[in-house]
Write a structure and sequence with these properties.
It is built from 4 helices and 5 strands, in the order βββαβααβα. It is α/β, with parallel strands linked by helices and 180 residues long. Strands 3-2-1-4-5 form a 5-stranded mixed beta sheet. The N and C termini lie far apart (37 Å).
Length: 180
């Protein structure tokens, strides 16, 4: 069994205009380690997004990469500074799915398409082979800092290019949705 570890991050610019937050550009990134050695980095972005969408997409892209490059008995650990994203996959998603993908208060789930797609990947990998670890953001964690820098650079690139780039630098319909 080989252990893959992904440090993920997302970054986005949102502005407060008259008490409402307006979405702007964002970036996502991951750094992959195989048996504690860095083997890959990847990032992308979107000209109109949210920070949560970028954090979630970084996890999604990591799991896609894991499936593309691992064996069936390998394990994956996702390290993220987004407690919200981790809680989705470790606490809330199972119950949301049981209720027909609605929250307990009946309100819609934001970023549902990315969440459902990520849950599908987790099911394909096997929940027993997927773990999540919360890391402190903007701290002395070297790999989290590198993932953050990649995400910020991708955000800047998305602003300049006005292009959406997903996993493997390809367009992805999961990105840039109206926060569904």
């Amino acid at each position: 069994m080989t252990k893959y570890t992904y440090y993920t991050d997302g970054a986005a610019t949102m502005i407060n205009k008259n008490g409402q937050y307006l979405r702007k550009e964002g970036g996502w990134a991951y750094i992959c380690l195989k048996d504690n050695e860095i083997i890959e980095k990847q990032s992308g972005g979107c000209p109109l997004t949210t920070n949560n969408e970028m954090e979630l997409y970084a996890i999604y892209a990591s799991l896609r990469d894991f499936l593309d490059n691992s064996s069936s008995d390998d394990a994956v650990e996702i390290c993220s500074d987004s407690g919200y994203s981790i809680d989705i996959f470790t606490k809330w998603a199972r119950n949301w799915k049981k209720r027909g993908w609605v929250k307990s208060d009946g309100k819609p789930i934001k970023n549902l398409e990315i969440i459902k797609a990520t849950c599908t990947l987790i099911d394909r990998i096997g929940e027993e082979n997927v773990s999540f670890r919360k890391v402190k953001g903007h701290s002395k964690n070297r790999l989290n800092q590198k993932a953050d820098r990649l995400a910020v650079d991708a955000k800047i690139n998305a602003k300049k290019s006005k292009k959406t780039t997903g996993y493997m630098q390809k367009p992805d319909d999961l990105l840039g949705k109206k926060n569904k």
